[in-house]
Amino acid sequence: SRPEIFKLDGKEIRTDSCWNLSNSVLTLLERQLLNEPSNPLNLLKQRIVNHVHQTYRKPGGRSPLFTVCEREPRVVTTFENFDSLLTPADHISRRPSDTYYVNQDYCLRAHTTAHEHRLIREGLDAFLTVGDVYRRDEIDKTHYPCFHQLEGVRLYAADQLFGTAGINQHPILEKTPTERKPHKQEKIAEDASNALQIQLKAFLEDLCDAIFGVCEKRWVDAYFPFTHPSFELEIEYQGKWLEVLGCGVLEQKLMEMAGVPDKVGWAFGLGLERLAMVLYTIPDIRLFWTKDSGFLSQFEGKSPTDSIVYKPISAHPQVTFDVSFFLPESVQFNDMTSDVYDTIRNVGGELVEQVKLMDEFTNKKSGKRSQMYRIVYRSNEKSLTKQEVNAVHKAIEQELVEKFSAVIR
Ligand code: PHE
């Protein structure tokens, strides 16, 4: 049922009969995966942002060149999402079967490109926009109604593209517009269009190398209403070519509309899920949304530079048991924890999916020390019964008693 007023990210918008947000998309809006510190999408985002900050600096080198915009409101006007990007009035992406509408004039952003017009108008020359975007879509292994994009835009005044000395030999705009050609727009000079494409592709190939080390990539010609020429970059993953980003030279019309007719620029938008799937070998896009600790624990406490190979979790349910015990006074806590982990894994074998030290304390009066571990059991073959797990758990307790003289509580 449609609310009278829709509130999101500080905006309050009166809905109308165009409203087509489902309950499930409202739930997705609340989750905000990029705010979860160990989410693989967040780790990848940080890896990209760190690379860009280290590689591209303002003149003098003191501060990063690119401004990161990650708090843009996720509800935008249809002007921002479509018209400012020269999307034709009858384009399929505008259909209510493709876009989530709050009312006739407002929708959930379908791409981070929706923020370009305003951010350029506000004076930014180099920025990254990151966030969750929403498209009504079939759900399968690689499609989900919400996914995450990282956008990059870089604008150049004449002297920034060819140097102060070069401006006279190389004006960036044509004196009189030519016809549109496969490799250039009407108003952008040939040399400028070529220079932009070289810079854009170098930026993205370098970014790919920084993320993946080596990986097979290829450029494919593409079409976007707001760039020309346009390209897609594909990456080889498990024997298939996977499209991971779109990019191109920004349409000069867009610059004029945003109030910077004398600059030229490029933009790209990449899908974080697609890249994270390749980088961490995550087989299914739906996994990013799981709350199963078998997934989350594989990324917990990791840093953006860590290499992580995701191990598929079983479809069978988890069974969680805790074990707490007192320790003899002679045993040092720190030495012991990894020995306890090993012991639990040795006895539990394949059935132990996760082990975590949850609590430790020393009783002030008795001086006795205590630890509590949480063990998550799960089988790849079948759903475990409590009885089966209990037998294994008892065997683990027994081993802890023998090895560490632990006193089970
Ligand atoms: N917004 C495009 C998409 O979502 C990607 C893109 C961004 C393409 C910037 C070109 C330039 O598919």
UniProtKB/TrEMBL annotation:
Taxonomic classification: Eukaryota, Metazoa, Ecdysozoa, Nematoda, Chromadorea
Highest taxon above the source species: Eukaryota
EC main group: ligase
Catalytic activity: tRNA(Phe) + L-phenylalanine + ATP = L-phenylalanyl-tRNA(Phe) + AMP + diphosphate + H(+)
Full protein name: phenylalanine--tRNA ligase
The family this protein is said to belong to: Belongs to the class-II aminoacyl-tRNA synthetase family.
Role description: Is responsible for the charging of tRNA(Phe) with phenylalanine in mitochondrial translation.
GO cellular component: mitochondrial matrix
This enzyme's EC code(s): 6.1.1.20
Domain FDX-ACB: 314-409
Domain Aminoacyl-transfer RNA synthetases class-II family profile: 63-312
Alphabetized UniProt keyword annotations: Aminoacyl-tRNA synthetase, ATP-binding, Ligase, Mitochondrion, Nucleotide-binding, Protein biosynthesis, Transit peptide
Pfam families: FDX-ACB, tRNA-synt_2d
Subcellular location: Mitochondrion matrix
Annotated GO biological process: phenylalanyl-tRNA aminoacylation
Molecular function in Gene Ontology: ATP binding; phenylalanine-tRNA ligase activity; tRNA binding
